[in-house]
Design brief:
Layout: H1 3-19, H2 26-45, H3 58-68, H4 73-79, E1 86-98, E2 104-116, E3 128-134, E4 141-156, E5 165-171
Antiparallel strand pairs: 1-2, 2-4, 3-4, 4-5
Helix pairs in contact: 2-4
Length: 177
């Protein structure tokens, strides 16, 4: 992350704490975002989209229903990310905005890099084969791929709104297109 992007993000986090939620914590949000990413990605890979209704916006859920049914099994398997397999997480963008009715929103885009052992072809563009792990002897090799995903979390901060974060964008480049 560039120093300017890092400063901009920290400034927005300060604004969130000052004007919307005095108890907002970057660390706590990131921890919760990782858990949500892991749970949602596993449900996606298992095609259990009905369990996502409380976590994902209706618009995103509709798009996912169309895309998931068309995916080959190995791509669906590659969507799943165990919490322990998340190698790196960073904020992509933080936005604070008001709509025409005066409703207040905060949106945080999170980027995840995770290891997955799905049986993907070696020529899948947009991902990087990191290494092969050898357990025991040479005959037992397990390939792992480093994959990326972008999830955008949104929360309404209008007085009286539920204090829940909703996922408003899900991107698994080259897997979920």
């Amino acid at each position: 992350t560039s120093p300017l992007a890092w400063l901009r993000t920290r400034f927005y986090y300060l604004l969130i704490r000052l004007y919307f939620d005095q108890e907002f914590s970057v660390e706590e949000f990131t921890r919760g975002a990782k858990q949500a990413f892991s749970m949602v990605s596993k449900l996606l890979s298992q095609c259990k989209l009905d369990l996502l209704e409380e976590l994902v916006s209706a618009e995103v859920l509709q798009v996912l229903k169309e895309k998931i049914s068309l995916l080959p099994d190995n791509h669906r398997d590659a969507l799943a990310a165990d919490t322990d397999a998340i190698m790196y997480t960073t904020e992509g963008d933080v936005r604070i905005y008001y709509d025409d009715d005066g409703m207040k929103f905060v949106s945080i885009l999170m980027r995840f890099w995770y290891l997955n052992g799905a049986n993907l072809p070696d020529e899948v563009p947009g991902e990087t084969k990191v290494f092969q792990i050898v357990f025991g002897d040479e005959s037992t090799k397990e390939k792992r791929h480093l994959l990326t995903a972008n999830y955008e979390f949104q929360r309404e901060f209008t007085e009286g709104a539920k204090p829940d974060w909703t996922i408003t964008r899900i991107e698994h480049p080259k897997l979920l297109e």
